[in-house]
Design goal:
Layout lengths: L1 H12 L15 H16 L21 E8 L5 E5 L7 E2 L1 H18 L1
Antiparallel strand pairs: 1-2, 2-3
């Protein structure tokens, strides 16, 4: 760490690749430092985490493509659930999806 602090000014200004864009595709030290910073943030979870909700499989196409719609909302602000498979594109209301998941859960419990 002391080496980095001692040479940071030279690294950021005088390094032969310092004039290149700050991305991972080149030798710019600023891009390297940005990558380290992002990795450290992910490691300590300092940045906001995107909430991931795993939904059940689509009953029509059997694919794992069901997601909460970001565009469609019901009157009381419940999201629609839609299949992202381009060949299926089935849409559920939240109560329909909940009923489907209840029957699916009961069927899985019966098998287990």
């Amino acid at each position: 760490m002391q080496v980095l602090e001692a040479h940071l000014d030279w690294t950021m200004q005088q390094h032969p690749a310092a004039s290149e864009p700050h991305d991972r595709a080149n030798a710019n030290p600023g891009g390297q430092i940005r990558g380290w910073h992002a990795a450290a943030q992910r490691f300590v979870k300092d940045h906001p985490q995107r909430e991931v909700q795993r939904l059940g499989p689509c009953p029509s196409c059997k694919g794992p493509y069901l997601v909460q719609s970001t565009d469609l909302r019901l009157v009381n602000d419940l999201p629609y659930i839609e299949c992202r498979d381009p060949d299926c594109q089935r849409v559920f209301t939240t109560p329909e999806y909940n009923a489907y998941m209840k029957t699916l859960t009961e069927a899985l419990k019966a098998v287990a």
